[in-house]
Every structure is written in C-alpha cells, then in structure tokens.
Automatic annotation (TrEMBL):
Pathway(s) it belongs to: Purine metabolism; IMP biosynthesis via de novo pathway; N(1)-(5-phospho-D-ribosyl)glycinamide from 5-phospho-alpha-D-ribose 1-diphosphate: step 1/2
Cofactor: how and how many bound: Binds 1 [4Fe-4S] cluster per subunit. Binds 1 Mg(2+) ion per subunit.
Family: In the C-terminal section; belongs to the purine/pyrimidine phosphoribosyltransferase family.
Molecular function terms from GO: 4 iron, 4 sulfur cluster binding; amidophosphoribosyltransferase activity; magnesium ion binding
Keyword match Iron-sulfur: yes
Name the UniProt record assigns to this protein: Amidophosphoribosyltransferase
Binding-site residues, [4Fe-4S] cluster: 230, 376, 427, 430
Stored PROSITE patterns: GATASE_TYPE_2
Function according to Swiss-Prot or TrEMBL: Catalyzes the formation of phosphoribosylamine from phosphoribosylpyrophosphate (PRPP) and glutamine.
Swiss-Prot/TrEMBL catalytic activity: 5-phospho-beta-D-ribosylamine + L-glutamate + diphosphate = 5-phospho-alpha-D-ribose 1-diphosphate + L-glutamine + H2O
Length: 454
C-alpha cells in the first residue's frame, strides 16, 4: 500500500513508483485512486503494476492526493471486483481505501450492513462500506468504526481533501510515515519511501489514526497499543532493504543465517541460496561456517514470487520457470541450500530434485525460520493447517518428503533474538500456535463472504 498527499506533485506517478517498490507484497491486481480536491478517480485492474498502468493512464490521474494498492488475496477470490483501492460514496462525497492484512470478525461487521451494500467479497469491502455509511465525515466514521474491527489492518484511505492512515492495535502489518519536500507519504515499507525520495519520519503506531491535509499530520489514538508485529515479515514478506523497528531486514536475515550455521552445522563444499529470499541467510551461514558461498541457480526475474500465487498448479509451474541450476557449479559437490521458509514444500522438493539431477553429491537443506506449523489469519495466505507440510509431518518426515540428506530449521528463540525485538512484541502464531487475537470458527476461510452469498 502507498498513499501520498503532495500538492504540486505528480502524485499518480509517485504512487506508481511506490507500488513498484512494493510489488513483492502482492501480484494479483493493482490500483490507484487520485483526488483533485473535488472528486476521486479510481483506476485498477488485474495484473502487475507495470501491466496495469501505462503512462497515458497515469497522465489522466491528476490531483494532489493518491492511494495505491497491489493485492495479495487472503479474503475473497482473485478477481477484478476484489481489486483495491475500494471506492464508496458517502454522505459528504466519496472514499477510497487500501488495506493490508486480514480481518477476523468480518461476518460480525458485515451483519451491520444492509443487504446489497457489498459489491465485492472481501473484508476490505465490508470495512469500506462501514466507513462510508457513517455521518459526520470520514475521520469521525473511522474513530467510530475502527474500535469495532478485529484482526490485522494497515489502512491508507482518502476522501476528496484528506489522506488517512491507520494501524490495528497489535500493529501486525507494517506501516510507515515519510516526508516529502512538499508533502507526506504513507507506505507499507520504508523501501517505498526510499524509492520516491521521501525521508522516513516514523512508524505509524498500533491503534493510531493519522489525518494528513494542508494543516499537516494529526495523530489520534483510537485504541490502546498492544504490539504484536508479524515475525514472518522478517522471514519472507518484507524487502531486505526495508527497516522494521529501526533494524534492517537484510541485517536480521544475515544474522539468522549465522545462528542457523551454529545450530545446524554440516560438512559441505558450497553454500547456495534459494534466490532471492534465501540469499541473506545463506551469506550469514557461509560467513559463520567458513564454507564458500556461491550461486547454484539462475533466476528468471520475470516470474513472480511462487509462494504468493493463488493456485497450487500455478505455484508448481512457477518454480520450474523461475529457477534453473548451474550444473558446472554444483556437479559432484556437497551442497547446503538455504531457504527462508517451508510452507507447503513445493519449492524445496523441486529444488532438491533439480540439484540431484544436475549432479549434486549431497543436498543439505537449511531453513532460516522455524517450521510453519499453524495457519495465519492475519494476512498471509495459509489459512488451514492441512495445507502446511509442518502441520502434518515431523522434521524427519519432511526431510524424507523433500528428498534431502539432512534438514535443519532455525529455532524460534534464535530467530526472535536476531530481530532484536522483545518476544512479547511479536506475533509468532504460524510458528507456535499462540494467536494474539482469538479467531472464531465462522470467521476462518478465504471465501467466507462468497460462501455466505450462496
């Protein structure tokens, strides 16, 4: 997500570049909403940012406020109707909103709406409808509605004259505020601020609403902060050049690799990463172990992240399209392959097979996160334990399933230590099953609003 308030700037192009920097967070659809102070115009479509927006389209999106979004679906199917920003007419004008996260009381919130008020099947559409149905303006509606909302939500939204940003009381998904020479930026990651030349000001606090207009930035607390930042952001989601809580994600991942080498040493000839998300930890593993670091794969940069594609068939095809082994570098060698996580096991199984076919003598898999054993209900798309390989198999059974000679995961304690964050300020639910916000059974499932319509 990306939002900008900057009179005199080409806000649609700033938003385009911001979304480009955040493309790794969602690749299914993209959209930008712009206001010139009188009306909001929204353009969105299925596809990557560069596919959806060509320069002639951006040139038609004129104004001084913009909100942008690239979608990774966690509630609702991957269809045009569910693309963001969402749009809603209000008593005073209109509202456009982008959301990163996942709400866990969507059925309860939807029950507050009249039949026919929802045009899409996402939790974001429900939230937008509630914000748009209040009286007294968007800010007043936000202060009334947000205390009722449970789950993970970082929001960037706007009316015709004002940009807003809000973060859930647990601060599960990241959100940062940046300063331009003549305006303000809000984004999911600090890397997006860097790309558009904005200076990092601070993180949006959990339970905080920011209001940004010609008077500057105003902060309002709508809930008490109970910080539980997502640990999986450090492992996989965030860009390595992003900072979380003042610490570089790259530095954290390299440190995890060093700790992994101490926890799970093995004799080998070469340490290679599964590019790109396994690279920092592989560097750390090589530095700590003294085993040479090298490249074992050529990566096709034009293939998206295989984990966040919405269907299993596309994921499996994407792995083969994305990576091809460097036979001369790996033939006859004992390899340590470092990856960031094992969710379903598809990527690692294919990689071990490719390396053996290319002549690797041994393949030792090392993972820079603990086993992902529990579903996420807060914005990562593994909503059932059945789809998680570690939710059903032991480490030894996973090793056998992958076809690796050995398999080692970083411990949860060592991963947390590498973040330099207190344990009680992190959401670790996918690793330890301890959920910071209870999730009712009727609120679980990616397609619950679609099923309710049947």
């Amino acid at each position: 997500m990306f939002g900008v308030w900057a009179p005199g700037e080409e806000v649609s192009k700033l938003t385009y570049f911001g979304l480009y920097a955040l493309q790794h967070r969602g690749q299914e659809s993209a959209g930008i909403a712009v206001s010139d102070g009188a009306r909001i115009v929204v353009f969105k479509d299925m596809g990557l940012v560069a596919q959806v927006f060509e320069e002639p389209v951006l040139n038609t999106l004129r104004g001084h406020i913009a909100v942008g979004h690239c979608r990774y679906s966690t509630t609702g199917s991957s269809v045009w109707e569910n693309a963001q920003p969402t749009f809603r007419s209000t008593d005073d004008g209109s509202l456009a909103l982008g959301h990163n996260g996942n709400l866990i009381n969507t059925p309860e919130l939807a029950s507050r709406l009249r039949d026919g008020e929802l045009g899409a099947t996402t939790d974001t559409e429900v939230l937008t409808a509630l914000l748009g149905s209040g009286s007294g303006g968007v800010e007043r509606a936000a202060l009334d509605v947000l205390p009722l909302v449970r789950g993970a939500y970082s929001l960037v939204f706007m009316d015709e004259r004002t940009l807003y940003a809000a973060r859930d009381p647990q601060g599960i998904r990241p959100l940062v505020l940046g300063r331009l020479e003549h305006g303000w930026v809000v984004a999911s990651e600090t890397a997006a601020l860097d790309i558009v030349g904005a200076t990092m000001v601070r993180e949006v606090e959990p339970g905080e609403l920011l209001t940004i207009d010609e008077a500057g930035v105003r902060s309002t607390r709508f809930a008490e902060a109970q910080p539980k930042g997502c640990l999986f952001e450090y492992v996989y989601v965030a860009r390595p050049d992003t900072s979380i809580a003042g610490r570089s994600v790259q530095a954290t991942r390299v440190d995890v690799g060093r700790r992994l080498a101490r926890e799970h040493p093995v004799e080998a000839d070469l340490v290679i990463p599964t590019p790109e998300s396994g690279t920092p930890a592989a560097i750390g593993y090589a530095e700590e172990s003294g085993i040479p670091y090298g490249q074992g794969f050529v990566k096709n940069s034009y293939v998206g992240r295989t984990f966040i594609q919405p269907s299993q068939t596309i994921r499996q095809l994407g792995i083969r399209l994305k990576l091809n082994p460097l036979r001369e570098a790996i033939a006859g060698k004992r390899l340590i392959v470092v990856d960031d996580s094992i969710v379903r096991g598809n990527t690692q199984r294919a990689i071990v097979r490719m390396l053996r076919e290319a002549g690797a003598k041994e393949v030792h898999v090392r993972i820079s996160s603990p086993p992902v054993s529990w579903p996420c209900f807060y914005g990562i798309d593994f909503a059932t334990r059945a789809e998680l390989i570690a939710g059903n198999l032991s480490v030894e059974e996973i090793r056998a399933s992958l076809g690796a000679d050995t398999l080692g995961y970083i411990s949860l304690d060592e991963l947390i230590a590498a973040t330099r964050q207190p344990r009680d300020r992190l959401c670790r639910a996918c690793f330890d099953g301890i959920y910071p916000i209870d999730v009712a059974e009727d609120a679980r499932g990616k397609h619950l609003l679609e099923e309710a319509r049947k």
